[in-house]
Specification:
heterodimer, A: alpha/beta, Rossmann fold, 7-stranded mixed β-sheet, 5-stranded mixed β-sheet, 20% strand, B: alpha/beta, 12 helices, 7 strands
Chain lengths: 326, 346
């Protein structure tokens, strides 16, 4: 029977199932053991698997990431928790230059089955260095897969697929989603990497959103439905590999596009996808594209100021109306 | 598992941090092993001389950092490894790869970007040769990227319950990367089977190590991490062999890492065409008196271990091996253009 659980629990369950299934899989990171991870995601894992598999590291991000590379090229399958995705910049050389390129630059002689778990997003007071959504940085990092779940079911199914993948996967979890609940299918639940999901079907406009922004997009869709606007919400569930075919298919139907993401607008993740649409499918568009994104400033620390940074449902509604009415 | 079958030698206690090794008074290696050390150093030298000629002829793409003068370190240290141990080589010459048994044809193939190279035509310079079957794990292009990877490989050996060790070669300048601290620290905390082998050749590109850190004795960092440290004469392959063997055995016993500092010097510039404005010819000439190859040759002759004729044969054999490898590597085809799209993902 399908079970309801939180996004955080789904991630913990995915790790537990995969560590159970494959003795080469282990988890390391800062305070992932008795402390249960900074967000409580690893609750119960230490008790179940012991300190051999659930490993507290020193406060050493270059080791957490680069050590995972060394472990992976010698036969293990690490899950490396970065505590905050902002720390991608601390361990940038290890993640981008080592994990992403090691196989390619050494003639295909190694596999790097690593999952970098990277909690991201604005979730109450994290501020400029603990609240970013840095996935767009990785557009320029070939070799790294980019996976971003928006629901508990996707989180579980995508994380299990990521752990089984023979390539490095950057797995972005939104901190603001950890307590959200959803139904998890029974039994072995795997979601293939690189497959978009239509979270709401519609015919007038496509809203592309992922992570927490999927939920704002769904709220906006519900609101404008009362005005007779039919919104399709497309969640790519990750950026590399990108399910561009599903985006084209949706645009063939709607001809209109609103793009929502939590990262700043300039050079943000939408920019590349929109550029590709303009190169390959400009004739599908009946109206200009609108982006709803954070302004080009750092994330403010004050909870009072956060809503000025993070895209709000009302902004998505306004963008939809503009694109459809225009 | 196999520990490589090298001739083992009398054990001696771990050297104290900063203590100079006084290994010369002991008979540490067999005559055959010393002859092998000499032969391998000659092969490394002849290989490099030939590679630099190939650079002159425009056949090489990618960087090369000459290692002339430092041959004794990889030769002595790698002799102390077992067959399935791991190795992260340094950015200084290709002595590590040659001493570990990687074929010169493959190394030249990487420098010439022909298909016979370990990267199958993608190309490699001072970094990116790899040979998993020899435990050669590749190398980070960014200096100091080796440290976390070596610690991770050592962790992996321990996690899997093997008695493999990982040796990580690096230069004095590289020891100033933050990755050094993170990796040595965790290796000490977790007693990882890793040997941190610093080749202190006094310079990082143009910068003297004395100007770049408050205490240029890298080995003095060992007690700060709670691990054993040892210094060794980096021009003496036998001394390097012995001190590395101690560290390898300690790691296999589960007693954790060792930091070794080998004092050495590079006789050539940092990279090809380096005019070396940062040091005098007199300084270089003074250090060249310590050249490990003639020094070991003189000892072999003095102790009656080898004849001059035998030593001459080592040069002839090395030159033939190198010439054959060059020919084979140059005759290997360049890869097809779509090679660059292969191997990004498994």
């Amino acid at each position: 029977m399908p079970r309801e659980m939180t996004y955080a629990h789904a991630i913990g369950e995915a790790m537990a199932e995969e560590i159970e299934r494959d003795p080469r899989v282990y988890l390391w990171g800062e305070d992932v053991g008795v402390y249960r991870g900074a967000m409580g995601v690893t609750a119960g894992l230490l008790e179940r698997f012991g300190p051999k598999y659930i490993i507290d590291t020193p406060l050493s991000e270059t080791f957490i990431a680069g050590g995972a590379v060394g472990a992976a090229i010698t036969g293990l399958r690490p899950i490396a928790e970065m505590m905050y995705s902002d720390f991608l910049m601390v361990a940038g050389d290890e993640i981008v230059n080592k994990a992403g390129k090691w196989r390619w630059m050494h003639g295909g002689l190694f596999k790097l089955p690593i999952v970098f778990r990277m909690p991201e997003g604005v979730a109450g007071g994290g501020g400029p260095e603990h609240g970013q959504s840095p996935e767009a940085f990785l557009w320029q990092a070939p070799g790294l897969k980019i996976v971003i779940p928006s629901t508990p079911a996707d989180a579980k199914g995508l994380l299990k697929s990521a752990i089984r993948d023979d390539n490095p996967v950057c797995f972005f979890e939104h901190r603001g989603l950890y307590r959200t609940r959803g139904m998890i299918p029974d039994g072995e639940h795997l979601v293939p990497i690189g497959q978009a999901d239509i979270k709401r079907t519609g015919s007038d406009v496509t809203v592309i959103a992922w992570s927490l922004m999927v939920h704002r997009a769904l709220e906006a869709a519900e609101e404008v439905a009362q005005e007779g606007i039919s919104v399709e919400v497309l969640d790519p569930r990750g950026l590399r590999p990108l399910d561009f075919d599903s985006i084209i298919k949706s645009l063939e139907k709607t001809g209109r596009l609103v793009f929502v993401h939590e990262a700043p607008k300039s050079g943000g993740p939408a920019a590349e996808i929109i550029a590709r649409i303009s190169e390959e499918a400009l004739d599908l568009l009946a109206a200009p594209i609108k982006r709803v994104a954070a302004p080009d400033i750092p994330v403010p620390m004050s909870i009072r100021l956060e809503p000025l940074y993070v895209p709000q449902t009302s902004q998505i509604v306004a963008a939809i109306r503009e694109v459809v009415g225009g | 598992m196999c520990h490589g079958g090298q001739a083992h030698v009398p054990r001696r206690p771990a050297t104290e941090p900063s203590a100079q090794s006084d290994l010369k008074e002991e008979v540490l290696a067999t005559g055959e092993q010393l002859k092998e050390f000499h032969e391998t150093m000659v092969r490394i030298m002849v290989w490099e001389n030939t590679l630099m000629r190939m650079v002159d002829e425009g056949k090489v793409s990618g960087f090369y950092h000459p290692g002339r003068g430092q041959e004794a370190v990889p030769v002595g240290a790698i002799a102390a490894l077992g067959a399935d141990d791991y190795l992260m080589y340094s950015h200084r010459g290709c002595g590590y790869q040659i001493a570990r048994g990687l074929s010169m044809t493959k190394i030249f193939g990487d420098f010439f970007s022909t298909s016979v190279g370990t990267t199958r035509g993608l190309g490699a310079g001072i970094v990116h040769h790899a040979a998993p079957e020899l435990g050669i794990l590749g190398q980070s292009g960014t200096i100091g990227g080796c440290f976390p990877i070596a610690a991770g490989a050592a962790f992996s050996a321990k996690f899997r319950g093997t008695d493999q060790v990982c040796i990580c070669f690096f230069g004095d300048a590289t020891s100033n990367r933050g990755t050094f601290h993170e990796s040595v620290n965790v290796s000490a905390a977790w007693k990882l089977p890793v040997i941190w082998l610093c080749e202190n050749n006094r310079y990082g590109v143009s910068s003297k190590i004395d100007d770049m850190t408050g205490n240029p004795n890298i080995v003095d960092r060992a007690p700060a991490y709670g691990i054993p440290g040892a210094t060794v004469d980096g021009f003496d392959p036998e001394a390097v062999y012995h001190v590395t063997l101690e560290a390898v055995e300690r790691a296999r016993r589960g007693e954790g890492p060792t930091l070794i500092e080998a004092h050495t010097y590079r006789f050539r510039g940092h990279g090809y065409g380096d005019a070396q404005p940062y040091r005098t010819k007199e300084e270089v000439q003074e250090w060249m008196k310590k050249d490990p190859i003639p020094r070991l040759a003189a000892r072999l002759l003095a102790e009656g271990v080898a004849t001059q004729a035998e030593l001459d044969v080592a040069y002839q054999k090395a030159q033939k091996e190198v010439d054959d490898a060059v020919e084979e590597a140059l005759n290997s085809p360049f890869p097809p253009d779509d090679r660059i799209f292969e191997d990004l993902y498994a």
